[in-house]
Amino acid sequence: MKLTPLALFVLSVFFVQLGYCQKTKQKNEEQPNIIFILTDDLGYGDLGVLYQNERKKNNDRSKPWAFTPHLDTMANEGAVMLQHYSAAPVCAPSRASLLSGLSQGHANVRNNQFDKALADNHTLANTLQKAGYTTAAIGKWGLQGDKRWSENGASWPARPTNRGFDYFYGYMTHVDGHEHYPKERLYRNHGQVWENDTDVTEALDKCFTGDLWTAKAKQWITNTVKNNEKPFFMFLAYDTPHAVLELPTQAYPKGGGLKGGVQWLGTPGHMINTASGQPDSWMHPDYANAIYDHDTNTTTAEVPWPNTYKRYATSVRRIDDAVGDILQLLKDLNIDDNTLVVFTSDNGPSQESYLPKPYVPNHPTFFDSYGPFDGIKRDVLEGGLRMPLVVRWPKKIAKNTVSNTPSISYDWLPTFMEAAGLPAPANSDGVSLLPTLTNSKGQKDSKIYVEYSVGGKTPNYSAFNENNRNRSRKEMQMIRVDDYVGIRYNIEDVNADFEIYDIKNDTHQANNLAANNAMPELQSTMKARILQMRRTNISAKRPYDNLAIPSVALKKIKKGLRWTSYAGVYPWLPNLEVLNPSKKGKTKNVNTFNYTKQQQDLYLFEGYLEVPKEGTYTFSFSTSGKAVIKLHDAILVDADYNYQANTVKTETMVLQKGLHPIRIYLHNANRDAIPFKLEWKTNNITRSSIPQSAFYH
């Protein structure tokens, strides 16, 4: 019987997936369950273990403190990462980078593009799905699509179940997350809860979302563990303590886990066990009658905390109670030891409350929610980007681990992939953090880069260094190189210098080491790197978009590229550098490379591309397999996820004359003699193949 090309393709996919599934099945006992808990607008300084406990110890009555006992316990039982960054200082781009594993130099959602559809590419969820996981998203989404950003946006093409989640329960749209009683809508006329594709809001009487998401998460975890042998991944995205600063109906139920804490009842009108009493009414007793020295004068009487801050502290404490509840559930289900739990936030603390008068405004200065830093939400100063980060995995992470390794949110995709036993996709910007978390060797440096634009100014808080008050934001950038952070605010001159700070010793970013043209070498490095690790995006234009990407200077080079081959079957084109190579060599001509002789399907070609003169280059690429090409750390071509063989992809970059590092990740399963075609053109010259003489190593 002669098989058609389509039949052959279907069979090949079947056998690849069969082999892969068998491999996954063998690993299931070792693969951890993974829970990623993301809070909304929670500051680094809001956690006891990171900052509030120190305020209590200092006992300065003019500086109130709050408590997070369960998170403190979680930290003692696992790890805290003291130098972890968000990919952006506001929710939508931050979440997009987290879920896609891409920096803001590559993610499709940037700036304030709330509700824009997350790109149909690799995500935390669909990679873990293919690794054998059952997946769920609970809580706030905000990346489903909207007509503001695309013609089909109103149909929500990027709802969670279209981006790798088997199950979704929560708020679909960004603005819904600003109200925490979806049915009553006490302060905001928004609040629509979805279970997959069904609106279930009508049954949610008196359901405070902080409790609702926790109860649903516990129910889903319990049912999944009882009825499914596969490991699970849960993205639990709380919409608190983001404004509006609402209160729960009652005290957090005692206990936790299977029989205590919040519980899912499933009865319309009484869906959870805290859906009774008065909405927006209960304050935690630690704060209900709290007083402080409001005028820093010990001879005058202390006064009660303003209601606004009692609400904020109660909201944070409710999250803390929820974390303790969930961790107890893991113990009750006997899955605690091999469940990896990450707790963090999407960006720095906010000055929003959405409360009407006479409530006082909300300012993070009351608790110093930004911790030992300057800046808040929407700033690329440390206070807007440095995140609280606690990780717990008893089987692998030692108790009381404290890490000063710099890292960023898009590192979690490769981290979870390594935990699941697979390499991350080749297009990923992050690195695995498992070596740091497990105190083992081989930790690679994170590529920490942020770009963001918004109007307004940094608040004029006296706690901030004078140079960081009332700063016009607009176009901003941040890059970290070792212990130095470079920032640019209100970028008008594309050649403007970075302010450079020794962030280890100058957490408030007060002493600009680059003043008076100091540190010229690091300045040049930062200016080059921010162009070498990003691509332009027409929906978020930057003043530096048209600057030529700098080349590199090398003294000794040879013709051709280095190549490395790899064995293995993977559900995507992997980041080959983390795999053990099969063979290595050099080739002067990739078009005459003998793939049949090497007997492998995966290849990495690397070296340098010589650009003959500065200009705008349009590259055209096609392959019979899969490929990802990077120039420096910028993704030139992504022909992996859903790529159709031999489809031509066209990309444009402005390049300086000289040598540019190039990496070609290739999957050539058919072992075609010439599996890809790479062409370029510039200055309206006819498109032509890049000559082999342009490649060096």
TrEMBL record:
<dbReference type="InterPro" id="IPR037524">
    <property type="entry name" value="PA14/GLEYA"/>
</dbReference>
<protein>
    <submittedName>
        <fullName>Sulfatase-like hydrolase/transferase</fullName>
    </submittedName>
</protein>
<dbReference type="Pfam" id="PF07691">
    <property type="entry name" value="PA14"/>
</dbReference>
<dbReference type="InterPro" id="IPR017850">
    <property type="entry name" value="Alkaline_phosphatase_core_sf"/>
</dbReference>
<feature type="domain" description="PA14">
    <location>
        <begin position="556"/>
        <end position="694"/>
    </location>
</feature>
<keyword id="KW-0378">Hydrolase</keyword>
<dbReference type="InterPro" id="IPR052701">
    <property type="entry name" value="GAG_Ulvan_Degrading_Sulfatases"/>
</dbReference>
<dbReference type="InterPro" id="IPR011658">
    <property type="entry name" value="PA14_dom"/>
</dbReference>
<dbReference type="GO" id="GO:0016787">
    <property type="term" value="F:hydrolase activity"/>
</dbReference>
<dbReference type="Pfam" id="PF00884">
    <property type="entry name" value="Sulfatase"/>
</dbReference>
<dbReference type="InterPro" id="IPR000917">
    <property type="entry name" value="Sulfatase_N"/>
</dbReference>
